Task: structure prediction
Amino acid sequence: MQPLSLTLKGFRGIRDGLGRDVLTLDFERLADGAELVAIVGANGRGKTTVMDNMHPYLTMPSRAGAAGPGGFSYYDHVCLPENEKDLIWAHDGRSYRSQVVVRLNGRRKTEAFLFVLAYDGAWKPMALDDGTVSDGKVDTYTRCVESICGSADTFFTSVFSAQGKRQLSAYRNAEIKTLLADLLGQEEIRALGQKAAETARLLKTGLAAIRQEQASLDEEAQRIAGDRRRLDGAQTRVAQCLSTRQAAHAEQDSARTRHALLIAEREQAQGVEARRRQLQGECQAVIQTGKEVIEALQAQDRGEQQRLERLDQRIAQRLGQERSRWQVLQNQRRQCLTLLAGAQAVRHGERRLPLAERVLSLRSAQVGTWREHVQHLTQCQATERMAQQKLSGIEREAGQAVLKAEELARRFGLTGEVPCVGTDLQGQCKLLGDAREAQALMPSVEGTIQRLGREKATVQKELDALREQHEALAAAPQALARAEHRAECARARAARFALLAAQAGEMARARTTLAEIDQELTELGTAPGPDAAADRPVETPEEAAERQQIGAARQAIAYQHEQQAKHYRATLDRLNQALAALPAPYDEQRLQR
Result:
């Protein structure tokens, strides 16, 4: 397989690396006749994206998380609503064109087309011998590509080495066998083996049917032989059966006579049984009615018992609430007394707060003043450094000007030493021309030296004045630190007094609350004991009246229960005596026998 050209549209690796949505590479033009091709570029420029798409298979092998169809998805590597991969490649002397369209607008969809270059120069859809045509579906495209280049696993193991691929030493035995079978072309052998296995299966099925038919024939033969053995001596057995039948007829007539007598006795006993059933029904009715009445009385008694339990619960709950309220009031009273213990400190804080705030204001003003002095000192130091730098620059420039003046003086001094002075050659002498040029430049250099001298004096005066200011403000940082410390102490003292003064209202509320608590404690009296409701709970008149009413109701229910029990017991005794006077029940077993 040889790639000829590649066009990628909407791939993230190309957009992030090159800033382009579309990239087209003509490999046939760029690398025509080359035996080895290298793609060079910095990290993240899109080399791996190009390499992963230089094959017709629907995967990017270095991006695939696992082998197989579920290990890769184009949707994670494209960014436009409609993305496209267009690869023209050659194999076995023919040219093919793979077009893969990945859509993200709305519902995700992938379409793949494989075209083959016909002899007339037109691209036509790829068609296999079994009738499969590349119609845009992924599965038909995959079948067409594998029919040309083989399976993807074999291709990416033996032909295309992707970045980060597994080594052959990491492959399992089954994977190695599958690859070797594909490489050696054992598909025909495998197909013949499958056909042979199918033939053996069909033969086994036919043999099983023949064996089943033979087994049924053997069973039929055994049944016929058994019937023949069973029918031997049938005439003798028929004569014996006839004599037995005559004896059975005589016995049947005797039994019918006995049966008629027992039926007559049963008809006589039916009236007694009807009376017995009537008495038994009355007993059941009495028992059922008595049970319902007793259950109703027991339900009323349980209701009164529950009412009594609820009364005891209300009394216990009331006593518990009183104890809880007494404890809460005691806790609140202790809190109020604890708070009122600091009343003297609060009054002291109220008296001292105005003075502390005035002191804090004065010391804050001092901090601001010393802060301005420190800022002036900082500005003075910066200006002094700039003036020192300017003075150093003037001195360097002045030194250079003096050196230049000495050089010009030395050059001008050559005027009297040049031998061509006063001759016809003095116009052509370069030394004499250089000396005269130096004479023309000397006034400018002397003016520069004088100007630099004046500037140095001016800067020196400024520097002296700045040093005097620096000495005057040298103690400002220490004074600022002392002022800030004193201001912080004043601020802490003012905050402490303000906190105490803020508690004045809370003190007043605590006094009011303490008076209310003392009044409520006086109304409650002493604290109820923890076992006040164990033996004899303290009851209100309403609770005592309700308890008495419940007791009277339970006594009335107990009396009714006793009376109803006596009544139903007497009724059952009377019915049982009537049942005992009846004859014994008729024995149906004799009639059944």
Summary: Confidence is low (pLDDT under 50) at residues 529-537. The chain has 14 helices and six strands. The beta strands are 2-9, 22-25, 82-91, 94-103, 109-117, 123-125.
